[in-house]
Amino acid sequence: MIASGPVAERGDDGEQEPARVGSSDVTARIAVEFAALLPAQVIDEVIRDCRRDLRGVSAAMMPELLERLVRQCLIDRVGDGESGPDN
To answer: Count of domains in the chain?
Structure first.
């Protein structure tokens, strides 16, 4: 199946789904912001989990809601003392 729009992303089930406009920008900003605080694998997991949690949100609202949710989840993890990338 080919998704409509400029880019297709794979969902958790491996199927292609329509691209979320701006979600790659969100991912890039978050990755840069938290790179010194958490391992990339943790950041990627949180982003993936938050996308799944926001499934069903309109495409127009997705980038802002995704960024807010991911940022808060990562702040919570840093506050809980998760180790940074050097640990």
So the answer is: 1
* Domain range for 43: 19-79
**How far, in Å, CA of 84 to CA of 24, rounded?**
23
> Is 12 domain-assigned?
no
- What is the Cα–Cα distance from 64 to 50, expressed in whole angstroms? 12
* pLDDT tens, residue order, the chain (87 aa): 333 333 334 444 555 444 444 678 888 999 999 999 999 999 999 999 999 999 999 999 999 999 999 999 999 999 887 655 554
Identify whether the C-beta of residue 17 lies closer than 8 Å to the C-beta of residue 11: yes
Inside any domain, residue 66: yes
Residue 13: inside a domain: no
Question: Do 22 and 62 meet the contact criterion of CB atoms below 8 Å apart?
Answer: yes
Q: What is the pTM of this model?
A: 0.67
